[in-house]
Specification:
CATH superfamily of the largest domain: ATPase, nucleotide binding domain
Structural class: alpha/beta
Helix content: 25-40%
Bound molecules: adenosine monophosphate
Strand order of the largest sheet: 5-4-3-2-1-6-8-7
Distance between the termini: 21 Å
Order of helices and strands: EEHEEEHEEHHEHHHEEEHHHHHEHHHEEH
Strand content: 15-25%
Shape: globular
CATH architecture of the largest domain: 2-Layer Sandwich
Largest sheet: 8 strands, mixed
Number of domains: 2
């Protein structure tokens, strides 16, 4: 089955075509056939398209909305120029899988799309006002373009965390506010945490029940997840993706009293404060330079920039703090797993997070750590260390493609 995976932002559309089916999943032999990204939809859009094994092609095109962007992609997919093996016409796309950020308490599994699912995603807009409308744009566009003939499924960032107990997901505010408005921790990056936990099981031969690990997704957005008996037990992001770790431009944990203080001292509206905490904080806010970890590391190394160094130190300390608290909550764990752009590539960030934790059984092997960059997967702990530390590149698109196949064939979805 060829699955088109779509991940839509407010002005962007990322896609992959993945060949997979139940037998292929069993053999772990899925194939990515093509991928691409369209940015700045709504004006002169920037288009990058790449058939697997070929060089990417880049160009600009006036694409006014997500439907125009999808039409553009499809024209390329079936073109002579792309020459994607096995794809000559639209009929060679057999299913479509969409990433949706918020599924609230309603969507605890990936599901096929119908009108009631769309209404359900719309009902979650209050909880994810930036993300869900963008995801819906992609769904609406692809229903228009492909019609009812092709099955479409949605995979939610929140559903992996639906197993969290009340003690993890409730905020200690009056309980009736949870009842009335469903104010609670939902957690995000669920597709990534779920995928790396699955890979961990494959690499170690452990069963789901034996899987007690802490997964740490460090990218532009960052989150940690305590996985107990294979299920999400706690996670650092909350009602929204703002809570928890220090991120590229998001502050993560903060005393809520700061909001009232800011509004008082700076005369800021709630809207402005929201923008400040989501877009101007984190690594960018502390360093005053950039939200990009690679550039910050270079600044710290080459110019000994004090605030770049401070931002990196705050970032790594917060991750340490979460690892420590999850180890306490879970009564210990067997492994820490790093993923995401920073987690997969930054030898130094991983080394700093794990430094001085020998007493917990965490000891990094310098050589192994330095080898795990650019998509390399495996252990980075010393041979006789009590706790394993893994680097596992995430692959959310693959998981979305696989769940789409399972939804289409009504096969059970392993968490
Ligand atoms: P993501 O959102 O998962 O694509 O991750 C983006 C983040 O990964 C950015 O902060 C990048 O600077 C960071 N990143 C990518 N490669 C490296 C690297 N080699 N060293 C440090 N950070 C990196």
């Amino acid at each position: 089955m060829n699955v088109l995976v779509l991940n839509c932002g407010s002005s962007s559309l990322k896609f992959q075509i993945i060949q997979t089916d139940l037998q292929i999943i069993e053999k772990n032999a899925d194939k990515q056939l093509a991928k691409g990204l369209i940015e700045r939809i709504g004006s002169q859009a920037l288009v990058t398209l790449q058939a697997t094994g070929k060089s990417p092609v880049k160009h600009a095109a006036p694409l006014r909305d997500h439907k125009a962007a999808l039409d553009h992609i499809i024209k390329w997919i079936i073109s002579e120029e792309a020459q994607i093996p096995g794809i000559q016409s639209l009929h060679d796309i057999h299913a479509i899988g969409h990433r949706v950020v918020h599924g609230a308490e309603r969507f605890t599994n990936s599901t096929l799309i119908d009108d009631s699912v769309i209404r359900g995603i719309e009902d979650c807009i209050d909880l994810a006002p930036l993300h869900n409308p963008a995801n819906l744009k992609g769904i609406t566009a692809s229903r228009e373009v492909f019609g009812a003939g092709i099955p479409q499924a949605v995979v939610f960032d929140t559903s992996f965390h639906s197993t969290m107990p009340e003690t993890s997901f409730l905020y200690a505010i009056p309980y009736q506010l949870y009842r009335r408005h469903k104010i609670r921790r939902y957690g995000f990056h669920g597709t990534s945490h779920r995928y790396v936990a699955y890979r961990y099981r494959q690499l170690t031969g452990k069963s789901r029940e034996e899987t007690n690990i802490i997964t740490v997704h460090l990218g532009n957005g960052c989150s940690a997840c305590a996985i107990k008996s294979g299920a999400s037990f706690d996670t650092s992001m909350g009602l929204s993706p703002l809570e928890g770790l220090v991120m590229g431009t998001r502050c993560g944990d903060i005393d809520p009293a700061v909001l009232e203080f800011l509004s008082h001292k700076e005369g800021m509206s709630m809207n402005e404060i929201d923008t400040l905490l989501n877009k101007q904080s984190g690594l960018l806010g502390i360093s005053g330079l950039t939200n990009d970890m690679r550039d910050l590391l270079a600044e710290a190394r080459e110019h000994q920039d004090r605030r770049a160094t401070l931002a990196i130190n705050m970032f790594t300390q917060r991750v340490k703090k979460y690892i420590g608290s999850y180890l306490a909550e879970m009564n210990g764990a067997d492994a820490i797993v790093f993923t995401g752009g920073i987690g997969e590539n930054s030898v130094i960030v991983r080394q700093r997070i794990c430094a001085n934790l020998e007493w917990l059984g965490i000891e990094i092997d310098e050589q192994l750590n330095s080898e795990k960059v650019g998509g390399h997967e495996g252990e980075i702990n010393k041979k006789d260390a009590r706790m394993k530390v893994f680097v596992i590149p995430t692959n959310e698109e693959l998981l979305i493609a696989r769940d789409t196949v399972r939804c289409v064939l009504s096969a059970p979805q392993p968490k």
